Amino acid sequence: MVLRGYVPTSEETLQTLAALRLQSLNSDFSTHAPFPRLEELFPPHVLHARLPPLPHRPPAKCRGARLRVGLLAGGLWGQALAKQRAERDQRLRGRLREEGASTMAAIVEKWKLLQGMGRPEAMAAYVALVREWPGFGSTLFDVDLHASPVGPGPQRLWLGIGAKAVSLYKPGEREPLDSFCYGRISSFGASDSSTFRLSVEDRDLLFETSQVDEIAQLLNTYLASASAQRLPRPQEPPTSPPTLEPTVLPEGLCPAPEPWHQRPPVGSSHS
User: Fold this and answer.
1) SUPFAM superfamilies attached here (predicted)?
2) pLDDT value at position 24?
3) 23, 86, 203, 216: least surrounded by Cβ within 10 Å?
4) Domain assignment of residue 192, yes or no
């Protein structure tokens, strides 16, 4: 999840995580130690984000313009454009290699500082850093939200499902846009093979996703666990005749709301 960008944190922390992984794999720094590829230690999208964006080609405004572009593309002009694209791609690849080498050098310097740290200690330090993210322990799904109180849809978001709540994140951001404890969820299910519906009190949220079944199964598991925790424990038979008044169960399946950043993280490993 770290390598795929699902743990929002600073680039400095990502380098430290990579160094801890090297310490766990190879022990103390050595020039003879086997080096994994950078993409096995550090999120590749961070390096790509440093590169300049590709130039935008404006669309042709009329049929005549499209025809002229087509004719030119078949001649010398098309060859010139192809040469420009090849040169641009070569420059970008060179820039990416430079950024990769710089990042690997920074990771190695942090690795050298970990001399003497054992594998269990390195693993514990790695998990401790990841646990600093408030969403630690959640399972994240890429979704497109089509009905949202936080902005116009469709909107690409992370749907985080944890043991205590369901949360919505903008990709790469630490704090959730919104969070719903299980007591607020009135219903959920698949509208079709690629649309998942989540009803939270008086709101219906529709998510476009390729993982409808996985989301439903995980929600079922956590809801069943939350319900079991709220059931009253068996008691000894009363010594006096029972009253005829019905027992009133507490409303909801979650405790009183508290700030998300103060909630204890759910224990789950990230690699």
Assistant:
1) PH domain-like, Second domain of FERM
2) 96
3) 86
4) yes
The predicted model gives 164-171 an average pLDDT of 93
| Distances from the Cα of 38 to the Cα of 11, 25, 129, angstroms | 14, 14, 20
Residue 34's pLDDT is 86
Average pLDDT across the chain, whole number: 79
CA–CA dist 14, 11 (Å, integer): 5
DSSP class of 4: T
199 shares its domain with 103? no
Residue 213, domain member (yes or no): yes
Give pTM, 2 decimals: 0.67
Give the range of the structural domain holding residue 222, as residue numbers without chain letter. Answer: 139-229
Residues 124 and 154 in one domain: no
Reduced to 3 states (helix: H, G, I; strand: E, B; else coil), residue 143 is strand
* pLDDT of 252 higher than 60: no
How many angstroms separate the CA atoms of 112 and 23, rounded?
A: 9
Asked, for residue 35, whether it belongs to a domain, the answer is yes
The answer to whether residue 61 is domain-embedded is no
Instruction: Name the strand (E) or helix (H) holding 240.
Output: none
